[in-house]
Amino acid sequence: DTGVSQDPRHKITKRGQNVTFRCDPISEHNRLYWYRQTLGQGPEFLTYFQNEAQLEKSRLLSDRFSAERPKGSFSTLEIQRTEQGDSAMYLCASSFEPGEAFFGQGTRLTVV
Amino acid sequence: AQSVAQPEDQVNVAEGNPLTVKCTYSVSGNPYLFWYVQYPNRGLQFLLKYITGDNLVKGSYGFEAEFNKSQTSFHLKKPSALVSDSALYFCAVRAYSGGYQKVTFGIGTKLQVIP
C-alpha cells in the first residue's frame, strides 16, 4: 500500500498522559498536514509542513501540542498532558500539489 | 479569513435521480476548490478540484462540480445517484492566508441515496 499511513489507528489514554502519533506520507510528497476531526465536524487544520519546515500552526494547537517532521519524510504529533477535550480523530494528509491532499485513515484518540 | 459553508446537514435523494450537494465559500483572491468524500471508517478521498479554466469540472465516480464566481459557489453534482454514493461529503477551499497556502474544510454534508 503506497498511501498515507498513520499509526496507531486507535489510542485510549488516561487524562494527563502524553501520546504520540506517527504519519508516513506518500514518499514523493513534500507537503504534510495534520487535521483534527470531531463528530459532526469537518477536518480542522492543525499544522502544515513543507519538507522539514513547519510553515504554519493553527491557534487550535496549544502549547501541549507539538509536531515534527525531522527529515522531511514521516511526521509525529505529540500531545502532552492529554485532556478529555483532546478526544478526536487526528488526520494526516500529504500532497505534492497544495490542497490536493491524500489522507490517511486517521488515529482515533480517546482520553478517559 | 477564508471560510466554507455547506448549508445542508443532510441530502436525501432517490436512486437514479440527480443529486446536488451545495457549497459556498469566502476567500480573498482566487480560490482553489475541492470536494472530498468520506465513507464510514475510511479516510477522506479526493473527488475533484477547480483551479482555473472551465467552470464545470469532472471528477471520480461520475461526480462533477460547477464553479460560479459571482455566487461564490462550488456545488457538487451527479446526474444519476447510486446507493453506493451514500457518504459524507466535504467541500474545501485553498487560498493564501498569512502568507501561506491554507486549506479550510466545510462541516460536511451527509448524502443518503434511497433505493
Report on the architecture of this protein:
The complex is a heterodimer of chains A (112) and B (115). Chain A is mainly beta. Chain A has no helices and eleven strands. In chain A, the strands form two sheets. In chain A, strands 2, 4, 5, 6, 9, 10 and 11 form a seven-stranded mixed beta sheet that branches. Chain A has a four-stranded antiparallel beta sheet with strand order 1-3-8-7, with no helix packed on it. In chain A, a hairpin with a 6-residue loop joins strand 7 and strand 8. Chain A is globular, with a radius of gyration of 13 Å. The mean pLDDT of chain A is 91. Chain B contains no helices and twelve strands. In chain B, strands 2, 5, 6, 10, 11 and 12 form a six-stranded mixed beta sheet that branches. In chain B, 34% of the residues are buried. Chain B is an all-beta fold and 115 residues long. The chains are: A mainly beta (112), B mainly beta (115). At the A-B interface, strand 5 and strand 10 of A face strand 5, strand 6, strand 10 and strand 11 of B.
List its traits.
heterodimer; A: 112 residues; mainly beta; 7-stranded mixed sheet; 4-stranded antiparallel sheet; 11 strands; 0% helix; 50% strand; globular; B: 115 residues; 6-stranded mixed sheet
User: Looking at the structure, what is the overall shape of chain A?
Assistant: globular
* Major sheet description of chain B: 6 strands, mixed
As a percent range, the share of strand residues of chain B is: over 45%
Spans of at least 5 consecutive residues with low confidence of chain B: none
- On the 0 to 100 scale, the average pLDDT of chain A is 91
User: Can you give the mean pLDDT of chain B?
Assistant: 91
How far do the termini of chain B sit from each other?
41 Å
